[in-house]
């Protein structure tokens, strides 16, 4: 099978389609499309979403010199269905909303601005920083207050409707790297601190259940503890973001009903580990798969080491689509269907 890429619309087209059209039928949302007809379908509005990003950090990305108005314009120009801006502090939602509102307002094209107001969504949660762990009871109370206010509002600045659609990111992080950006050292995590970290995570799981929100889970080098917290609370609704474990661990999460999300880190896979990564990607049920950037972190190859942006999520889709033997546009449609199901978009 041969493909050519159209620079004008940035999609793949099967140039051998006419030789055997029946062989290339693909079901999408209960309807049948052909791979080379997906670009036409997108243009005609049959499939309107291209390359959603389920996890990015606006303020952190802007701090690295990225013009978010330009990044947002690019998302809207390709009619992305969804982009989820993620919280990490109990009280950061207002600042993030204001930054998003400002970036959208700077987009001059009225149609693009309208699309952005539709596609942008937000979460609120507490990342397991030592300071947050130490003040966990006060911080979770503040988070609850902020979520309650946002959920009861009909508008959040220029954003209309229920735009707070998830709780997180929250979870456990036992990746010890004192010289890294997180400045996370094992010596700072006594038994009491580890217990507090688990309590902070479980309190947020309980809060998500109270509000009926899916949870964005951060789990790094902490599989057993993460699964234990989830089992203790018994709330199984959400996604394990930036997934970094193997098939056995994925099975444990999926069996409980969780989604699994991959970031640009998948493109870092060494050649010797490619079969392993491919097996993992193919193991994830297609109705449990999400994709993300985690901007400004984990920029996909060939941009590794540079600030990441939601626009680069397309490279993640293309990498995963290749592993799954799917056209990227078909994968985009599948992920968007999962976004609708998990986050309740359009209900």
UniProtKB/TrEMBL annotation:
<dbReference type="InterPro" id="IPR032466">
    <property type="entry name" value="Metal_Hydrolase"/>
</dbReference>
<protein>
    <submittedName>
        <fullName>TatD-related deoxyribonuclease</fullName>
    </submittedName>
</protein>
<dbReference type="GO" id="GO:0016788">
    <property type="term" value="F:hydrolase activity, acting on ester bonds"/>
</dbReference>
<dbReference type="Pfam" id="PF01026">
    <property type="entry name" value="TatD_DNase"/>
</dbReference>
<dbReference type="InterPro" id="IPR018228">
    <property type="entry name" value="DNase_TatD-rel_CS"/>
</dbReference>
<dbReference type="GO" id="GO:0005829">
    <property type="term" value="C:cytosol"/>
</dbReference>
<dbReference type="InterPro" id="IPR001130">
    <property type="entry name" value="TatD-like"/>
</dbReference>
<comment type="similarity">
    <text>Belongs to the metallo-dependent hydrolases superfamily. TatD-type hydrolase family.</text>
</comment>
<keyword id="KW-0378">Hydrolase</keyword>
């Amino acid at each position: 099978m041969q493909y050519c890429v159209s620079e004008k619309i940035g999609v793949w087209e099967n140039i051998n389609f006419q030789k055997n059209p029946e062989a290339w039928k693909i079901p999408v949302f209960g309807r049948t499309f052909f791979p080379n007809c997906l670009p036409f379908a997108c243009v005609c509005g049959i499939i309107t979403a291209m390359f959603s990003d389920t996890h990015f950090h606006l303020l952190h990305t802007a701090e690295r010199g990225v013009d978010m108005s330009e990044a947002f314009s690019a998302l809207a120009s390709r009619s992305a269905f969804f982009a989820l801006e993620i919280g990490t502090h109990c009280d950061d939602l207002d600042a993030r909303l204001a930054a998003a509102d400002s970036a959208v307002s700077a987009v001059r094209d009225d149609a693009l601005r309208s699309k952005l107001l539709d596609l942008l969504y937000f979460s609120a949660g507490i990342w397991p920083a030592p300071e947050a762990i130490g003040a966990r009871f006060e911080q979770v109370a503040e988070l609850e207050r902020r979520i309650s206010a946002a959920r009861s509002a009909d508008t959040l600045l220029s954003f209309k409707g229920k735009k707070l659609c998830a709780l997180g990111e929250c979870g456990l992080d036992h990746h010890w790297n004192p010289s890294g950006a997180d400045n996370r050292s094992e010596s700072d995590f006594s038994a009491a601190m580890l217990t507090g970290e688990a309590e902070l995570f479980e309190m947020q799981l309980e809060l998500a259940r109270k509000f009926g929100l899916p949870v964005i889970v951060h789990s790094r080098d902490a599989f057993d503890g993460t699964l234990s917290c989830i089992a203790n609370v018994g709330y199984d609704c959400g996604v394990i973001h930036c997934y970094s474990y193997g098939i056995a661990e994925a099975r444990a999460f999926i069996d409980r009903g969780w989604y699994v999300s991959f970031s640009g880190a998948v493109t870092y896979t060494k050649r010797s580990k490619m079969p392993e990564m491919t097996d993992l990607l193919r193991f994830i049920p297609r109705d449990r798969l999400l994709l993300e950037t985690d901007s400004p972190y984990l920029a996909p190859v060939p941009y590794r080491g540079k600030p990441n942006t939601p626009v680069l999520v397309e490279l993640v889709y293309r990498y995963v689509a290749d592993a799954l033997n799917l056209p990227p546009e078909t994968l985009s449609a599948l992920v968007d269907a999962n976004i609708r199901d998990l986050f309740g978009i359009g209900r």
